Queue: 2 jobs
Job 1
Amino acid sequence: MPRPRMKGGPMPKGNVMKTLGRVIKMLFRFYPVLVPVTIFCIIFSAAASSVPAIFMQKVLADIETWCDSGDWASAKEQIVPKVLVLIVLYVLSIAAITAWSQIMAYMTQGFLSKMRCAMFNGMQDLPIKYFDTHRHGDIMSHYTNDIDTLRQLVSQSLPSLLQAGCIVMCVFFIMLYYSVWMTLVVMGGVVMIMLVSGKIGGGSAKYFIRQQQSVGKTEGYIQETMNGQKVVKVFCHEDKCQGEFDALNEQLYQDGFKANAFANCLGPIIMNIGNILYVVIATVGGMFLLSGADNLSISGLAFSIDIIIPFLSMTKQFTGNINQVTQQINSIAMAAAGAYRIFGLMDEQPETDDGYVTLVNAEIAPDGTITETDKRTHHWAWKHPHTADGTVSYRLLEGRVTLDGVDFAYEEGKEVLHDVSVFADPGQKVAFVGATGAGKTTITNLINRFYDIADGKIRYDGININKIRKSDLRRSLGIVLQETNLFTGSVMENIRYGRLDATDDECREAARLAGADDFITRLPEGYDTELSNNGSNLSQGQRQLIAIARAAVADPPVMILDEATSSIDTRTEAIVQRGMDALMNGRTVFVIAHRLSTVKNSDVIMVLDHGRIIERGSHDKLIEQKGTYYQLYTGAFELD
């Protein structure tokens, strides 16, 4: 199956910290009070867990003094208060840990919710071109896998990193306070740990980033294959699809294997370096103690057992927390890759809209004066503000559409339309015929401003459509496509999708106009029948009739029918055609059809070939000319 062109690529080097910084800024922006409170609780709990080394040294010094003097009562008076203070600190530390863990649980889910909303809101403003050039499964991966990496970052990695970093700093200064020489020995082991972490952790991060990208590609292919499952089976491409999936899955396996191979060996290596360092500290401390070496410290204390023992505990704590920091490298790398993809979606340029002419409900006075009203009057008008003099003029929406010398290309240098001119008066039915790729659907996409033209003009009731706000322009146009999209919900909700403020009676009236009321009332729950999976429990014709009813309830003055009957049988086509005829009555209509029998009664038929209009006129006039249309009509009733 052909695959859409992919944009973007792997995360450039040096973008990890920039991306993580942006995540943290957004966290502060969403929770300006809770984030500082959480940071305070984490720092307090980290400091409280570092203090016992000081108390241990003090208690050991008191015990050593008691052993020398034998005065237990005096030692007890010194030791008990220290132990009580330590207990209080531990209780407060537990309270702080409980507080920040609960706050983080709340903030994490709230942050992810806000990020999903930001992504979805931004995605709603993206141009159609974005969805034409990106796999839908890969876009979905932003909302699942990429968001999940942020969950791990916010709820686990950042708090652990901050807590471990605070403990390392506290313990480092405590060690310096007691002995510079012993601290230098510890730092020698830390340098070794950092070298190992940089080598192994760097490789792990690189492959975790690749794994995140491979997940998106794999999900995109799976969704693409699921959507095209019938095509796969019809053309017996199961083996080909399996081969392509195996290649993507193999790449995902290799990236995941290498990432976890690095990650799994990092922890044990660092832990054992810590164990070796523990032994080295015990040995060096014993040597200093036995040799009577002078101690260099801020405290001014000499080498003694009450310094060596706390140092051993601090060494374990120091290396353990450094190990904790290095263990976060993998999740941070994955989160950076996920956040980079998320921000890539959020930073996509939205659809530009410089329009200032809006569509309003209008009342027409007996003298022809047009006034704006909040009531639905079935009369619409273009509201045109004039910045030059500050006045506002109104023009009744009639449905006159003109294209004058329009050129267009989806990609630069590959022109799709050339010098196309179309004139549709209010109430006229204009048909486009031609071979696949001639440019028929492209014309309707330009009228909707799904794409902007390269040259020429498109005017709606004499107004350049670039001046009309896109939402108002599209509100004035009704579209029935060949591929009908129905959404999960009831039949009534799907019809109301055309106008969200439509009443149930208006929806039923639209269904009767479209000829859909008969089959809808025979459904198990009537209009309340639930649809899912694009209305898979309905026939193609029934789905089309609901789509026509959806367009009818919007009551637009201009309709676009894009091959709405090409995929249904002749009998169903007659039913659908009656519904479309009722819908087209009194409206300007653009019809795209392969079946020439459906365009015979059009006011104007335009024959396109390679982006140019080569013939135009009524059915009878074109038959008399005996040109391309005549050959198509007499040679076959369907265009290939």
Job 2
Amino acid sequence: MTNLVNDVAETVAEHPEQTAISFRDTDISYEAFWHRTGQLAAALRDAGVEPGDRVGVYLPNLPQFVTSYYGVLRAGGAVVPMNPQYKAREISHMLEDSEAKAVVALSDLVPFVREAQDDTNVEQIVSVGGDADGATEFDAFLADEPMETVERDDEDVAAQPYTSGTTGTPKGVLLTHRNLGWMTRHAGDVMEEDYGPEDKLLGVLPLFHIYGMTVVMNAGLYNGSTYYPLPEWDAETAMGLIQSEQLTIMHGVPAMYNDIINHPDAGDYDFSSLRFVNSGGSSCPVEVITRFEEIFGVELYEGYGLTETSPITHANRPGARRKGSIGQPIPGVDAKIVDEDFEEMPRVEEGPIDEEEYDLDEIVGEVVVSGPNVMKGYHGRPGANEEAFTEADGKTWFHTEDLGYWDEDDYFYVIDREKHMIVTGGYNVYPREVEELLFEHEDVADAAVVGIPDERRGETVKAFVVPKPDADVTPEEIKEYCLEQMAEYKHPRQVEFVEELPRTTTGKVQKFELREQEEAN
């Protein structure tokens, strides 16, 4: 019998007076934090939440998110984290599909829960940040006395996050106590030294997302560190907090680092307290990594993972790093590159390669992974589960749907998502290759590349570019720049300047929106 929160309980016993959460000049000790999680667990039990029941957590990065997450687990329930940018229609599917019994929501978001409630099993709504009709205010909801933690099996579900839904209906990902407990204990392995009580973590990654939930919140609290949540991403606020509080660890997504390096005052900030900086969530352009390191003198490491893998599967780390690579598989996780017949693709001698010197179709395949962090499956999706897994070599392999290649030193290089690959005139074009080139242009602040319909070629390449402020460049000059440096069939035949790119809360470009905009024109 186990429970993900038992690991944190040991930390609380060892460091009761240590600050667990620091938010807007208020420090919450591990002892005080733990007491409140027990009070919430007892209140949920009294409200009818039983072991195995789902509870929605519909909050931005606030101390109450952390309390709710661990309170639900202490009650024996499973957390359904929900994006606070979602509206009623979007959360309705998650609540109905998960059969959640209760929801802890920001008071401003309670009306969306109420709007969706009739089609769900939600019986109890708890509001954070104020009173709301149909909800009980958070502090008033807490029980007078905490309850003991309900023990759960390794294979019991601890969290049920949903895929982003950028294509199709979001799927509930079943992450067990074994999945999340293993990942929590090993998230610090990618650093020279694991997290410790002296560490201070920047909490900019949204906690509803697996990256912020596990690698930052869970791992930080497991190791007795202090978590500094930020409810909204703002580059200047984040940079100021790093400097003023002497934060030691930052995990972010590429869009955040791009915002930081493009901030006009970036060079005025002191990041010398940071001992480990990591990028994940999507591929980080090499140019962004290079510029970040030039400005701040701090190495930026890139890693890789998915919601379905809790999330880390690969990482660069001190002493084992190659720019442009997602790194090597972390200890305990197996990975390989396979073709459509699940045969291993040949390795290159050493990457990253000059993609003009290789036939990518000869070396690129799908990244598949196996390990204790791989999900139990998708909730209520037998068809999707059948497609997601392959049994081979005595292991269960998960199909990531990411395309890449590997080298003889076991470094992996992700080229693109399978669904993003552009086939133009019979040639395969990987958008990331074009995007990397665009980021190298001195007048480009942000860029995304998609395939659009073309009568003669089937598809053709289009680039959406955000120019830097005061940039003196035209779309035609961008096209010519690409044509000079890559094969003719790869260069964007259309370039459109835009003010910003549509992104998810975790910084991923929503390329389907760009395609839809194109179709509407």
